[in-house]
Automatic annotation (TrEMBL):
PANTHER family in the record: CARBOHYDRATE TRANSPORT ATP-BINDING PROTEIN MG119-RELATED, D-ALLOSE IMPORT ATP-BINDING PROTEIN ALSA-RELATED
Molecular function via GO: ATP binding; ATP hydrolysis activity
InterPro entries recorded: AAA+_ATPase (IPR003593), ABC_carbohydrate_import_ATPase (IPR050107), ABC_transporter-like_ATP-bd (IPR003439), ABC_transporter-like_CS (IPR017871), P-loop_NTPase (IPR027417)
Organism of origin: Paraburkholderia caballeronis
Keyword set includes Heme: no
Name by which UniProt lists this protein: Monosaccharide ABC transporter ATP-binding protein, CUT2 family
Pfam family name, one: ABC_tran
Keywords: ATP-binding, Cell inner membrane, Cell membrane, Membrane, Nucleotide-binding, Repeat, Sugar transport, Translocase, Transport
Gene3D superfamilies: P-loop containing nucleotide triphosphate hydrolases
Record-annotated ABC transporter domain positions: 14-256, 258-516
């Protein structure tokens, strides 16, 4: 099929952007001879497994990476951006999966960082704060951030709200091409709807949009065409109406993926983790729950409901005001309170956290895969306090094979891996250690369909070993697929706990909104969303 063949009403006009024969090689080729044409007023869905080359292609178009082969044209002229700033100056903007915000600056300053409004007769060095605030509120309202003060430092927001700020930043200004890389991974249904409204407005203005997502239901809602990458090559470009989700997945992974998963026969035992009355300010309010050996316990709720903050309190990353964490002795018996005041304490007691922010909190990006995998097991790969390279590589290779991490080898820097494979490296680190309680915060964020099922199967294997798993996810269907019980957080409290067979999507959503029924509670939720535990 001709990858440049346009489809849809936008195809009568010349392409806004053309990519011809583009290739990129690191230690091995990650893109080979990719050609695409993008038309104004259309959404082109770009999908494929992690490591297929989606992010690399996007970064080339967005000016972050230079291609090794091929050429590009923007509005019929040669397009060779030397940097992201060059690309943005020409109207090509990108919302990256990894956030590009300055945490110490306010929301308003991040939104208009390169074009801060000046006022008064002496314009040099003076910022018109009133105008900045008004412009910021307008931009924030487009993505549902009305309740957030534009003067709030971005670092005080949760990851979900930060992602909305990043999206709002790229919806301002003169945009000709907009690349959205997994923009809804951390958003609620309401926020996704607001984003799609903005996409519709941009399409009406003639903006060409590249939409990268593993959520195939989203692609059917907003895209006109879909382009599928596999192993760095463009394997299919077609009208979205011509492809079923099953056909898209088959093109992505080369095999059929079902909608059910067999986690194997498990024996769910006695409580291994017991949390009682844990809390911190109004962010987490006196939450109690337990998780049994061999059980997968899900945590659902809206952005800002306190899910991530709850995991951080259990792990000791944030100091709790009240409550206890108890663990069953290794020989068996009732859980007994343990002192966990820091992550070091947590790991010592066999508790691990796979963080939602792999870039900022989970990985040493410039370091090789081997160093990242063995970071939690330095004693096992060292002799006399010095890391033994052979042991380190052997341990890393076992985890690379077990999790099917796409890498050229243990020596490859983690920064060169796709987002999903970076997440696998974080998970691999804790699998090399004997942790009885595993806290997963958005473990499949930015991971493709095939890799998700690999992670689910891995979770099943961990549960069969008798470990206790707690999984935070914004994807209700994911939790309903893999969990034995689901606890729903609402306004910092555990509103309800559902056992398998008792829940429905409506019941889970109803519990998630239960804490925000009054206007006062909703305002309290907005305030809590910017109160980040330190």
């Amino acid at each position: 099929m001709d990858a440049n063949a346009p489809d849809g009403p936008s195809s009568s006009a010349p392409p806004v952007l053309t990519v011809t024969g583009v290739g990129k090689t690191y230690e091995q080729p990650v893109l080979t001879d990719v050609s695409l044409a993008l038309h104004g007023g259309e959404v082109l869905a770009l999908t494929g497994e992690n490591g297929a080359g989606k992010s690399t292609l996007s970064k080339i178009v967005g000016g972050l990476v230079a291609p090794d082969a091929g050429a590009m044209q923007l509005l019929g002229r040669p397009y060779e951006p030397a940097s992201r700033r060059d690309a943005e100056a020409l109207g090509v903007r990108m919302v990256m999966q990894e956030l590009n915000l300055l945490p110490t600056l306010t929301v308003a300053e991040n939104l208009f960082l390169n074009r801060l409004p000046h006022g008064g007769p002496l314009r040099f060095g003076w910022i018109d704060r009133r105008r900045l605030d008004a412009d910021a509120r307008t931009a924030m309202a487009r993505v549902g951030l009305d309740a957030i003060d534009p003067a709030t430092p971005v670092g005080e927001l949760g990851i979900g709200h930060q992602q909305l700020v990043e999206i709002a930043r790229n919806l301002t200004g003169d945009t000709r091409v907009l690349i959205l890389d997994e923009p809804t991974a951390m958003l609620t249904g309401r926020e996704v709807a607001l984003l799609f409204e903005q996409i519709a407005r941009l399409k009406a203005r003639g903006v060409a949009i590249v939409y990268i997502s593993h959520r195939l239901d989203e692609l059917a809602r907003i895209a006109q065409r879909v382009a599928v990458l596999r192993d760095g090559r463009l394997v299919r470009v077609d009208a979205i109406g011509s492809l079923t989700p099953e056909k898209i997945v088959a093109a992505m992974v080369g095999r059929e993926i079902g909608e059910r998963i067999d986690l194997g026969e498990r024996r769910i035992g006695a409580p291994l983790l017991k949390v009682e009355g844990i809390g911190r300010g109004s962010v987490v309010r006196d939450v109690s729950f337990d998780v049994r050996a061999g059980e997968i316990f899900g945590l659902s709720g809206l952005i800002g409901a306190g899910r991530t903050e709850l995991l951080r309190l259990v792990y000791g990353a944030d100091r709790r005001d009240r409550g206890t964490v108890a663990l069953a002795p290794r020989g068996g018996g009732e859980p007994v309170p343990v002192r966990i005041d820091s992550p070091v304490d947590a790991v010592r007691h066999g508790v691990a956290l796979i963080t939602e922010d792999r870039k900022g909190e989970g990985l040493l990006l410039p370091q090789p895969v081997a160093a990242n995998v063995t970071l939690g097991q330095l004693g096992a790969v060292s002799r006399y306090g010095i890391v033994d390279a052979a042991r380190e590589n052997a341990l890393a290779r076992r985890q690379i094979d077990a999790l099917r991490i796409r890498t050229s080898g243990p020596a490859q820097p983690v920064a060169e891996l796709s987002g999903g494979n970076q997440q696998k490296v974080v998970i691999a680190r804790w699998l090399a250690r004997d942790c009885r309680v595993l806290l997963f915060d958005e473990p499949t964020r930015g991971i493709d369909v095939g890799a998700k099922f690999d992670i689910y199967a891995l979770m099943g294997a961990l549960a069969r070993e008798g470990r206790a798993l707690v999984v935070v996810s914004s994807d209700l269907r994911e939790l309903m697929l893999i969990c034995d019980r689901i606890g729903v957080m609402s306004a910092g409290r555990m509103d309800a706990v559902f056992a398998r067979g008792e829940w429905s999507e409506d019941a889970l959503l109803g519990a998630a909104f239960a804490g925000y029924r009054s206007r006062d509670a909703l305002l309290g939720h907005a305030a809590a969303g910017v109160e980040r535990a330190r």
